[in-house]
Amino acid sequence: MANEELRLVESAQRGDIESFNALVRLYEGRVYNLCYRLLGDADSAADAAQDAFLSAYRHLRAFRGGSFRSWVLRIATNVCYDALRARQRRSIVSLDAAVETTPEEAAPLQLANTAESPDEFALRRELARAIEAGLAQLPVDQRLVVVLCDLQGLTYEEIAEVTGANVGTIKSRLSRGRARLRDVLRQGELLPLRFRHKGEE
Predict the structure, then answer these.
(1) One domain for residues 200 and 125
(2) 82 and 141: one domain?
(3) Angular region, 65: left φ>0, alpha ψ -120 to 50, beta rest
(4) Do residues 72 and 100 touch, judged by C-beta distance below 8 A?
(5) Domain count of the fold of the chain
(6) Which single residue of 114, 138, 154, 178 has CA 20 to 30 Å from 13?
(7) Whole-angstrom Cα distance, residue 182 to residue 165?
(8) Within 13 Å, how many C-alpha atoms sit on residue 197's CB side?
(9) Where a domain ends, among 78, 93, 108?
């Protein structure tokens, strides 16, 4: 994948639109997923993801190697931070508002698994909704690292590339974010009953 990514980046830097479109197809799911979880609604996430890729295209010649995925996720993160600051200034959207419905592409935990029963699928959907609501209550810096690490599977080093923070800071934010998420889920009784009982045993 790294060699293919590099080939596409180099071709796109020479002006090949199709190569850039291929890069978009590779990472549009991850970028949208990140934007959705930071901003909390589908329309804002779609706008932010589009802005991120437009910015990436405009600044493509400035990309000097490394991970294109980390680079474009960093651009998306900055776009989301700008959007959150604009919301704060307008004071019309609460960052503490619970997420209502999670699109399938933004919640891989909800994807159907033919090996599970309808009850298991329903329980997993309930758990995913609880996690979404809990994530929405985290400070944005903690939410970001939890999403990148626990939901997108990035390493500490990759998260450092995305956020511009050092690995020690990443670990600290991740630890605090996980702990706060657990507290929110338990205290607010957002977790499905079966999972609350497991955690309390």
Answers:
(1) yes
(2) no
(3) left
(4) no
(5) 2
(6) 154
(7) 24
(8) 3
(9) 93
Residue type at 131 in one-letter notation:
I
Q: What is the structure's pLDDT at 1?
A: 55
The residue range of the domain holding 51 is 1-93
Looking at residue 45, what is its pLDDT?
Answer: 95
Contact 167, 157 (CB under 8 A): yes
State the Cα torsion 19-21-22-28 to the nearest 10°.
Answer: 150
- Length of the chain in residues, anyone? 201
Alpha-carbon distance of 181 to 74, in angstroms, equals 23
**25 and 56 co-located in one domain:** yes
**pLDDT over 60 (residue 29):** yes
Write down the pTM of the prediction: 0.75
Give the CATH number of the domain where residue 63 resides: 1.10.1740.10
Tell me which amino acid residue 201 is: E
Structure token pair of residue 28: 């549009």
pLDDT, average across residues 61-86: 93
Q: Cβ atoms within 10 A of the Cβ of 9, count? A: 18
Residue entry with tokens 């934010």? 173
Find the farthest-apart pair of alpha carbons in the chain and give their distance in angstroms, rounded.
59
Are 7 and 68 in contact, with CB atoms under 8 Å apart? Answer: no
Residues 6+ apart with CB under 8 A from 64: none
Mean pLDDT within 114-125 = 66
